[in-house]
């Protein structure tokens, strides 16, 4: 069978699948981990402030829903465009891929402006809705008024970076966030401690860092510099196409729902903990969510790095490699997650002390942490299933399981369990229950709908999934 690999970039339909995935995933996971430093380093420095460090950390935790909402719209366009972009490249349609890139750029710019306007207008009531107290509000408000200025920079850098990885330049994509994170790491102690700006300094350092990341992405994608990607960002491709926008938003809706529902759950958790425990428990929750973001990032990087490989092979109709790629991705993810789970269960205090040395926080947080992370390794099922659904264009499944875990399982349990006599521990228990139920449901459905039927497919043939023609640029073009 002849495989059309397009006009440039990496051909994922030949060579070692594990090698392709690791070459994509390792730089991407490292880049995503480094990207977390934009906020994680802020929390570490703020949490260790000599005066009111725990209270300031609570204020930063209250801003999570805002940051999640910005990430939600970034994911809506970025993760929605990347599989379409990859399938177009796999099918040899570079012009279509360029249109997808141009439309994604316009969507990110317009949406970032709208988000800034809404957030600044309703900042005070929204922060109180997310669990702010009279004491912690000043810290949350001071951080967000500066942080929101960087919204366009954040969305462009993160939303377009996937188009660099999808063209086979994961190291360039990694450098997007490495440059910004190093800048943030240098500026944080200067602005927070030396200039005594506190949370305002942390936000300012983040905005400056994001501007550097954004500049790097735009310079590379516009073809400026020594290395030029096969598909560049061009003015003639920046025309909004209703069909392309709908396709991007359809596939990106699962990522949007994951981030949006994550923001809603964080707000529900913080407000419930504020009601049943006060600022200390909100601070503990901030530490836990920070640790979770760090330890799950390699799994997220592995699955995200696998997506262009799976999508490319599907676009090229090499289904046997798609099936093998699913096994490889899930196996490596589970192995990593199990190892991290052991480390958290054995050494919870070390993880907590990374963010705060407050004695009361440490004393209460150890038992709560073991509950919160008790089923962490089941999250690999969720990540793997979501990646396959999204990467192969089955948006309705990806959207459903995004909603199932957060809205159907976590949110009701977060609100209900504390009121059934479990108190604050009910909030921490909701997460592992959702990990097991949501992760297993997503993984087993993916096996039944995609992995098992794919065993009967012949490389090169037109296929159907779930009794319907599969959504892809190639299939639609041939019908």
Secondary-structure map with pairings?
Layout: H1 17-47, H2 53-62, H3 64-90, H4 94-121, H5 123-129, H6 137-147, H7 151-165, H8 170-194, H9 198-221, H10 242-276, H11 279-315, H12 319-346, H13 348-353, H14 359-372, H15 379-391, H16 395-416, H17 424-451, E1 464-465, E2 468-469, H18 473-478
Antiparallel strand pairs: 1-2
Helix pairs in contact: 1-8, 1-9, 1-11, 2-6, 2-11, 3-4, 3-7, 3-10, 3-11, 4-7, 5-6, 6-9, 7-8, 7-9, 8-9, 10-11, 10-16, 11-12, 11-14, 11-15, 12-15, 14-17, 15-16, 15-17, 16-17
What is this entry, summarized?
77% of the residues lie in helices and 1% in strands. The protein is an all-alpha fold and 479 residues long.
Question: Keywords for this structure?
Answer:
single chain; 479 residues; mainly alpha; two-stranded antiparallel sheet; 18 helices; 2 strands; 1% strand; globular; disordered C terminus
What does this structure look like?
- The protein has helices at residues 17-47, 53-62, 64-90, 94-121, 123-129, 137-147, 151-165, 170-194, 198-221, 242-276, 279-315, 319-346, 348-353, 359-372, 379-391, 395-416, 424-451, 473-478, and strands at 464-465, 468-469.
- It has one domain (17-459).
- It is globular and about 60 Å long.
- The protein has 479 residues and is mainly α.
- Mean pLDDT is 83; it is low at 1-8 and 466-479.
- It has a two-stranded antiparallel ribbon with strand order 1-2.
- Strand 1 and strand 2 (468-469) form a beta hairpin.
């Amino acid at each position: 069978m002849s495989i059309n690999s397009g006009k440039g970039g990496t051909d994922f339909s030949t060579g070692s699948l594990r090698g392709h995935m690791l070459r994509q995933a390792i730089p991407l996971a490292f880049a995503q981990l480094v990207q977390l430093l934009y906020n994680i380093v802020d929390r570490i420095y703020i949490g260790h402030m000599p005066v009111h460090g725990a209270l300031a950390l609570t204020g930063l935790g209250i801003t999570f829903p805002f940051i999640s909402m910005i990430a939600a719209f970034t994911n809506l366009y970025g993760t929605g465009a990347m599989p379409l972009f990859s399938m177009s490249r796999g099918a040899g349609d570079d012009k279509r891929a360029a249109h997808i890139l141009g439309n994604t750029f316009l969507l990110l710019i317009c949406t970032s402006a709208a988000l800034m306007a809404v957030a600044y207008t309703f900042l005070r009531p929204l922060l109180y809705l997310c669990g702010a107290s009279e004491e912690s509000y000043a810290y949350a408000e001071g951080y967000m008024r500066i942080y929101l200025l960087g919204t366009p920079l954040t969305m462009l850098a993160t939303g377009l970076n996937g188009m660099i990885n999808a063209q086979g330049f994961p190291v360039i994509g990694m450098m997007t966030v490495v440059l910004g994170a190093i800048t943030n790491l240098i500026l944080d102690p200067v602005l927070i401690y030396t200039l005594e700006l506190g949370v305002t300094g942390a936000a300012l350092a983040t905005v400056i860092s994001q501007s550097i990341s954004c500049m790097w992405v735009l310079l590379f994608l516009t073809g400026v510099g020594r290395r030029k990607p096969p598909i560049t960002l061009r003015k003639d491709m920046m025309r909004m196409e209703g069909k392309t926008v709908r396709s991007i938003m359809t596939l990106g809706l699962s990522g949007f729902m994951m981030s949006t529902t994550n923001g809603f759950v964080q707000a529900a958790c913080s407000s419930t903990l504020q009601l049943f425990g006060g600022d200390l428990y909100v601070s503990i929750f901030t530490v836990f969510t920070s640790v979770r973001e760090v330890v799950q990032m390699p799994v997220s990087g592995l699955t995200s790095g696998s997506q262009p490989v799976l999508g490319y092979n599907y676009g090229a109709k090499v289904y046997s490699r798609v099936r093998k790629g699913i096994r490889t991705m899930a196996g490596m993810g589970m192995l990593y997650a199990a190892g991290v789970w052991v480390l958290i269960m054995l050494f919870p205090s070390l993880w907590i002390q990374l963010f705060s040395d407050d004695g009361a926080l440490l004393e209460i947080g150890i038992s709560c942490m073991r509950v919160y992370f008790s089923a962490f390794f089941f999250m690999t099922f969720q990540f793997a299933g979501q990646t396959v659904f999204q990467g192969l264009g089955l948006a309705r499944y990806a959207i459903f399981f995004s909603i199932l875990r957060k809205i159907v399982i976590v949110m009701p349990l977060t609100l209900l369990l504390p009121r059934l006599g479990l108190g604050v521990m009910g909030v921490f228990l909701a997460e592992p229950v959702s990990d097991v139920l949501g992760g297993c449901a997503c993984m087993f459905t993916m096996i039944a709908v995609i992995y098992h039927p794919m065993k009967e497919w012949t490389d090169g043939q037109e296929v159907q999934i779930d009794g319907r023609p599969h959504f892809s640029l190639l299939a639609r073009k041939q019908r």
